[in-house]
Amino acid sequence: MTETQNYIQQNKQRFLDELFSLLRIPSISADPAYNEDVLNCANAVADFLRNAGADDVEVCETEGYPIVFGQKIIDPALPTVLVYGHYDVQPPDPLELWESGPFEPVVKKTELHPEGAVFARGAADDKGQFFMHLKAFEAMMKTNALPCNVKFIIEGEEEVGSESLGTFVEANREKLANDVILISDTHIYSMEQPTVTTGLRGLSYVEVEVEGPNRDLHSGLYGGAVPNPIHVLSRMIAELIDDNGHITIDGFYDNVEEVSAEERAEMNKLKDDPEHFKSSIGLRGVEGEKGYTTLERTSIRPTLDVNGIWGGYTGEGAKTVIPSKAYAKISMRLVPYQTPEEITEKFTKYFEKIAPDNVKVTVKPHHGGMPYVLPSDSEEFLAAKKAMEKAFGKEVLPYRSGGSIPITALFEKVLGSKSVLMGFGLDSDAIHSPNEHYGLSNFYKGIESIPYFFQYYTELKNA
Ligand code: BES
Ligand code: MN
Ligand code: MN
């Protein structure tokens, strides 16, 4: 192992330069204008995999964006680790809020990262993170230290719902057969308190439309006598959460897992620092479900948020109008054992129920995803904990995250294996936001931790 670690130390600068070349490709899966860039990015990932020493590297066509596959099978009797990541990124807008170009990576020092951080869209989510695996693999290959088999699937549609990956996994069970799935697409609690992510929330996402009159109306001629769909929608949204922070949708909490007192005590060992939480996002005060800490509200409890609301006139100046329609996009984060189908249905019924008779309400479901939990006494978790403890020289705790990676639940269902979420970002990385960045020490700690995971996992399996 020390030889592998030496290799990593000696090649640090080149690893970073190579990452920059990936970050320069605007692989925005949500925007068809970037189609060619997304495809180029897939090819670039395939080249990196090949150069790192992978066999059978393929850019697998799908209905959507391709999935990059590669593997190194050293002995079928040994365990197989499947590494998953995504090369697509979120759109960079609002562009004017970026201090440097989203696809012109630069290293800048920040208060949290005196050693520097890479600023670029995808730096932390997920190019900078899956790239650590390619480099850790290269280091193990170059130093003859790969202790088990490895397969890679790096997809290009994670940010838009991973639809093609679902189909691909169902159709390629043999090809993807593995003992454990290793993913770096989450964050640690802090540099001082590293963590392995043991939970992800699910997601139900809907778009709602409220229609009042059949055309936009003059607000002087009609105002006062007709339902304004923006007012109606606002009242309906306000009704979705009560004064205790409870979601009012009928049956919303029916299947919610009651987390045991022991587990709550364990997770609250992570120091929940309300002042830091507030100041880190410029907030005057927190709010949320009564009876739960901020840490719990953002991990083991389900939530509902309006992501966007529009309708009527929002242009320059004043136009006097009562709009015909108002819209909102609403997401609900789910916890075990809620399902997106169940919650979308319950939402729809409830939203239709609370609508006044004089408007027409339509609910359109978008993609969803299942929640995921990795038990903190599993050997998969223990191997990751030990690996990170070795690299960080600190105790590593389990951490349930509020974000979603829906494919983890599907992996478990179809391939029968657990996903280990060994991500190295920080919540302050501004993923999906302007000025996304990834700390250089996070990047390098990740590369150092991964070979240890391979080693400890193989030892645990053979024990
Ligand atoms: N990598 C994130 C998810 C994440 C980030 C989980 C940090 C935990 C900690 C992923 O790329 C993502 O953005 N997921 C989406 C869901 C998807 C269906 C669009 C999300 O969580 O909103
Ligand atoms: Mn991601
Ligand atoms: Mn993302």
Summarize the structure.
The protein has 463 residues and is α+β, with helices and mostly antiparallel strands. The chain contains 13 helices and 18 strands.
What labels would you give this structure?
about 475 residues; alpha+beta; Aminopeptidase; Alpha-Beta Plaits; six-stranded mixed sheet; four-stranded antiparallel sheet; binds ligand BES; binds manganese (II) ion
Computed Rg: 24 Å
The CATH class of the largest domain: Alpha Beta
Helix-strand makeup class? alpha+beta
Proportion in helices: 25-40%
Percentage beta strand: 15-25%
Calculate the mean pLDDT score and round it.
97
Number of helices: 13
The CATH architecture of the largest domain is 3-Layer(aba) Sandwich
Task: List the ligand species.
Answer: ligand BES, manganese (II) ion
What CATH calls the topology of the largest domain is Aminopeptidase
Number of separate strands: 18
Strand order of the largest sheet: 1-2-6-3-7-17
Number of domains: 2
Biggest sheet, open or closed, and with what strands and sense? 6 strands, mixed
Please describe what this structure looks like.
With 463 residues, the protein is α+β, with helices and mostly antiparallel strands. The protein has 2 domains: 291 residues, Zn peptidases (Aminopeptidase, 3-Layer(aba) Sandwich), CATH 3.40.630.10; 121 residues, Alpha-Beta Plaits (2-Layer Sandwich). It has 13 helices and 18 strands. A 6-stranded mixed sheet has the order 1-2-6-3-7-17. The protein has a 4-stranded antiparallel sheet with strand order 11-13-9-14, with helices on one face. Strands 4-5-18 form a 3-stranded antiparallel sheet. The mean pLDDT is 97. Bound molecules: ligand BES and manganese (II) ion (MN) (2 copies). The site of ligand BES has 17 residues, from loops. The site of one manganese (II) ion (MN) has 5 residues, from loops.
